[in-house]
Amino acid sequence: QVQLVESGGGLVQPGGSLKLSCAASGNIGSIYTMGWYRQAPGKQRELVAEFTRGGSTNYADSVKDRFTISRDNAKNTINLQMNSLKPEDTAVYYCKLYNGFWVWWGQGTQVTVSS
């Protein structure tokens, strides 16, 4: 069994910053992709940023130049540094891990951008 534990969400004013972390534990195997998705009320879940199997990164156009994904391979942890946050970034953020066979999701962490 694999567990993904997210942390770091909260309430922030527009223009502010937050850092999310996701720690994976358990019988992971090889990590193909690991990244962050988000789901706003009434909308579909969407990719925010992820590491691919080859080690490259993918970002949603809406967060490029504002968000940065990083990782600590030794700890099976990824982080998402979010800067210049906008109200439209408000959503539940989910960590996702795919090992080539199974997909696991974290429980989600709420990010609210509001004045």
How confident overall, as mean pLDDT?
A: 95
| Count, helices | 0
User: How would a crystallographer describe the biggest sheet?
Assistant: 7 strands, mixed
| Low-pLDDT runs | none
**Strand runs, count:** 11
Question: Beta-strand level of the residues, as a percent range?
Answer: over 45%
Question: Helix/strand/pairing class, anyone?
Answer: mainly beta
In sequence order, what are the helices and strands, one letter per element?
EEEEEEEEEEE
Question: Roughly how many Å is the radius of gyration?
Answer: 13 Å
Broad shape:
globular
What share of residues is helical? under 10%
Distance between the termini: 40 Å
Kindly describe this structure.
A hairpin with a 4-residue loop joins β7 (67-72) and β8 (77-82). The protein is an all-beta fold and 115 residues long. The protein contains no helices and 11 strands. The protein has strands at residues 2-7, 10-12, 18-26, 33-39, 46-51, 57-59, 67-72, 77-82, 91-98, 103-105, 109-113. Strands 2, 4, 5, 6, 9, 10 and 11 form a 7-stranded mixed β-sheet that branches. A 4-stranded antiparallel β-sheet has the order 1-3-8-7, with no helix packed on it. The mean pLDDT is 95.
What's the SSE blueprint?
Layout: E1 2-7, E2 10-12, E3 18-26, E4 33-39, E5 46-51, E6 57-59, E7 67-72, E8 77-82, E9 91-98, E10 103-105, E11 109-113
Parallel strand pairs: 2-11
Antiparallel strand pairs: 1-3, 3-8, 4-5, 4-9, 5-6, 7-8, 9-10, 9-11
